[in-house]
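Q: Entry one of two.
A:
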Amino acid sequence: MNKYLRRALAPLAAATLGLTLLGGTDAVARPIGWTAAWAASPQRPSEGFTANWAEQGFSRQTLRQVVRVTQAGEQARIRLSNAYGTSPLRITGATIARAGKGAAVEQGSVRHLTFDGRRSTVIPARGHTASDPAQLTVGAEESVTVTLYLAETTGPATFHAQGFTDSYRADGDHRADVSGRAFGEKTQSWYYLAGVDVTGGARSERPGQGGVALFGDSITDGFGSTSGADRRYPDALADRIDRPVVNAGIGGNLVLNDSAWYGERGTARFERDVLDQPGITTAVVLEGLNDIGFYEAQAAGYDRPTYFPAPRVSAAELIAGYRSLIAQAHERGVRVVGATLLPLGGSDHYGAHAARVSDEVNEWIRTSGEFDAVADFDRLLADPADPERIAARYDSGDALHPNDAGYARMAAEVARVL
């Protein structure tokens, strides 16, 4: 495990401890129990995603990103990732604030962030860092902005491709602006920002609850949901349960194979993106459709280079991948819920091999007893007249990804089994 993550991001089972000083000349240190209130899984820069700034990076620009936290708190910190950087990344300055409309922030809420007491910091290539605590009261399901001023040329940026919400860019230093007028450009990805943690909220005072990390691919990431409306399946779950929820999905991700476009394989990134999130006690695993579906799409001649040379994956191989995730979670004291693969009939991921493997894998998830609980999305979202297909009322239009109603239905199922 990355040394920084061992030091700063252990889950609730071995609670992360920050240090803050109480006032006065005889100040003493007391521990801070951080809880991940929002997260995004880092990806390497890729020119394959349209309308993003990852390949070109930033220079003398301010980047303002809006995220919705799922836990109330009285203090906040941010986590930044240069995981795929090939050179050190200098953050000239950063702020956090309660969000207003668009790129604007709430008057009086801007807080300058420090890193080991300084307003600037340098993150080494392939490194990570966390800010010091900032006094900022936020509510659960409230949006905050994180604003980074990047005075020096960054080079290609570690990012999260599919944010499905607007991020903003301005020339010059606008980190403390309340107005959003300077932010004339926008895109729907997140850059360098890997997490927002809080402490001091009501939920964090309830022992034994802990956070829930939803791990998966584009279905977890929120593809097909209404953009800018926070209606992804993790958002819908956060609305239903009195526990923090973080989204550890990457669109196109696979359990067993790395992809230059869609991130490291699930078995490799699970520790970083789930187990090292502070306060996480439960993981929900929904991944595998791309492992079997990319092969079918490639075999059918779909002209998408993102499918790369897709291997033919068996049910036994995919089950071995799930067993690796379960073992990793249990070793860290994290409960793991297995979710069955959604129906994929009629999509570009469908074919005889994918149908057979999906059925075999789903039956194993339901009956093996190896997961601590099961969320049966396959049966939940299937068309009763054609169980190989997702029901029309839950289909976003591609026969693969749910719409807002489908994501809400999935959230209700997870809430039931937690």
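Q: Entry two of two.
A:
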Amino acid sequence: MNVFILNAGSSSLKYQLMNPVTKNVLAVGICERIGIDGVLKHEFGDGQELKIDVSMPTHKEAIELVLRTLTDGEGKVIDSIDDIEAIGHRAVHGGEEFASSVMVTEKVIETMKKLIPLAPLHNPANIMGMEICQELMPGKPNVAVFDTAFHQTMPDYAYMYALPYDQYTKHGIRKYGFHGTSHFFVSNEARGMLDKKHNTRIIVCHLGNGSSVSAVLNGKCIDTSMGLTPVQGLMMGTRAGDVGAGAISFMMSQEGMTINETLDLMNKKSGILGISGKSSDLREVLDGMQEGDDRCRLAVDMVAYNIKKYVGSYVAALDGVDALCFTGGIGENSALIREIVCAGLDGMGLNIDPTKNNKRSNKARDIATNSSAARIFVIPTNEEYVIASDTYKIVSGLEK
């Protein structure tokens, strides 16, 4: 089964064409600057690349261009749209309504529209992608795979905020968590690497421009760092992470900032960028630290310290740990961050092997010492495979 995987953003559109049974990826690409001028970057075959500069006034033109590129011309990988048997959509926020992936129906779309206040930047674009695919490929099944679904197994005492209870009952204000497809994939891979499907205590650190940590007990999430929105939790590329409400209100009063200005600052101008003053890209900040830039050093120390705090708290929540996993662009590629995070965690049974840690590989691997009581894994994530696999199972009737 060929599954067309779609991740629709406000001005971009990421896609893959994959067979989830064989795990064969036929093509991968992105449409950028939708509504501005437009560029398509398309990868196919044995590392071949194609770039097309073309006007994309809306997401509809972008998806039409992708489908033409997949079926015709230099970037062709299938004979016709008929070779696409299903469409799997990344859906950011499912609230409490969706604890698993679902077939897209009118009722599902209406429910997602009601959840737009929880994800005003993401859900409208996700919904748009679904409706356009229904229009362009009528009759083909569409499946929504929610970032929040994996975290719906959290107990109430973990996801509730200590606000008046009616803020939860009236407005759904609680922790939801994100990056769920990545946390699911990596924790499941870790269980396989442990060769242990039961009584597993796994901590997953998904570290990239957006970062989150989860505590996974026996394959079920019991806590995660992101909250109502993705700004809570770890310090990230441009997001502030955990900041006290008093500090936010004081900053607003001192600067005369509106709520929207404050959210823009906390989401787009804070984190690694805000502290370093150099970049949101940790690689550039690590270079700056090596050159003696003290603000870059501070940003790196803060990133690692924040991760370590969450790891320690989740060891407590899990009553121990069998595996600590690193994934995402930073988690998979930054040996220094892994080293700093794991330094001093010997008492928790986590002992990193410097030689294994510094050996580069694009495959899942164990970087703990042989004598470490718990394992430390680096596992490349594959969120697209989760979306394709869920789509295949639902469309094939394997998940009822």
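A: Comment on entry two: The chain has a mean pLDDT of 95. The first helix runs from residue 59 to 71.
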